[in-house]
């Protein structure tokens, strides 16, 4: 019995000691192992200073660098350029509204719109309605219009009808047409319609449906009706001098 008693006491002592030690170890880990917060430390002698430049709507707020302003396209300034055409050498220095308009209509460089007499006359007649036999701003037919335009731009007098104008011209192949040449069409039998060639396939004429306007020789209707081109002959010009 005594031996059993001592064994029990000894077991209890050793058991209690181990529990106490284990508990102490757990508590030590729980309360001493937690990370401590440290204040932010800066390296001594280093300061962060803001750029003295004020931040405005035109400044990069992150890099304090000026933001590139959008570049406004400069207006085209055309230097003095020599251009050869039927009216001789012409010089242009700046682009005006008339040149810009017809350069857009003909899809050509503005420098090519240099015959101001021709394009001023076209502008003056623009949208005048077609009238068979007409010769005024109240209404004008195709041959009367070409006669008026050639007279105003080149000081050359043409015969009254499209047929007679064709006879007064030297014939020109389509690929050799230049500004001021005449272009002829068969719209109702024979030579029945005429216009003045401008550039890039475009010609100006008094159209039955649109009045004084611009069309292109490559358009289906005019391509099918096209007869040929003509340039006022030297003889015709000499006869009028």
List the helices and strands and how they pair.
Layout: H1 2-32, E1 81-85, E2 88-92, H2 97-106, H3 116-125, E3 135-136, E4 139-140, H4 142-154, H5 162-167, E5 169-172, E6 182-185, E7 193-199, E8 202-207, E9 211-216, H6 220-225, E10 226-232, H7 234-239
Antiparallel strand pairs: 1-2, 3-4, 5-10, 6-7, 6-10, 7-8, 8-9
Helix pairs in contact: 3-4
Q: What distance lies between the first and last C-alpha atoms, to the nearest angstrom?
A: 161 Å
CATH topology of the domain at 121-239: endopeptidase fold (from Nostoc punctiforme)
Per DSSP E runs of 2 or more residues, the count of β-strands stands at: 10
Q: Describe the global form.
A: globular
CATH superfamily of the domain at 121-239: endopeptidase domain like (from Nostoc punctiforme)
> Structural class, from helix and strand content?
alpha+beta
Q: Specify the CATH class of the domain at 121-239.
A: Alpha Beta
Order of helices and strands: HEEHHEEHHEEEEEHEH
Percent range for β-strand residues: 15-25%
Strand order of the largest sheet: 5-10-6-7-8-9
| Helical content (DSSP H or I, runs of 4+) | 25-40%
Q: Write down the Rg.
A: 47 Å
Largest sheet data: 6 strands, antiparallel
* Number of helical stretches of at least 4 residues: 7
Mean pLDDT: 75
Q: What is the name of the CATH architecture of the domain at 121-239?
A: Alpha-Beta Complex
User: Would you identify the regions where 5 or more consecutive residues have pLDDT less than 50?
Assistant: 1-34, 46-91
């Amino acid at each position: 019995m005594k031996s059993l008693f001592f064994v029990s006491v000894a077991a209890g002592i050793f058991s209690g000691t181990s529990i106490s030690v284990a508990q102490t170890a757990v508590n030590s880990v729980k309360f001493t192992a937690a990370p401590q917060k440290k204040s932010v430390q800066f390296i001594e002698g280093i300061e962060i200073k803001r750029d003295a430049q004020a931040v405005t709507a035109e400044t990069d707020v992150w890099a304090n660098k000026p933001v590139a302003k959008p570049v406004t396209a400069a207006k085209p300034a055309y230097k003095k350029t020599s251009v050869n055409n039927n009216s001789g050498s012409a010089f242009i220095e700046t682009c005006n509204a008339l040149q810009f308009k017809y350069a857009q209509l003909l899809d050509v460089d503005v420098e090519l719109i240099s015959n101001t007499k021709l394009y001023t006359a076209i502008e003056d007649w623009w949208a005048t309605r077609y009238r068979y036999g007409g010769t005024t701003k109240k209404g004008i037919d195709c041959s009367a219009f070409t006669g008026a335009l050639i007279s105003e731009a080149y000081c050359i007098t043409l015969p009254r009808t499209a047929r007679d104008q064709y006879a007064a011209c030297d014939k020109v192949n389509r690929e050799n047409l230049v500004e001021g040449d005449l272009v002829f069409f068969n719209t109702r039998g024979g030579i029945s319609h005429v216009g003045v060639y401008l550039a890039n396939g475009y010609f100006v004429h008094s159209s039955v449906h649109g009045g004084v306007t611009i069309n292109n020789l490559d358009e289906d209707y005019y391509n099918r009706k096209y007869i040929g081109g003509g340039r006022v002959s030297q003889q015709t010009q000499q006869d009028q001098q």
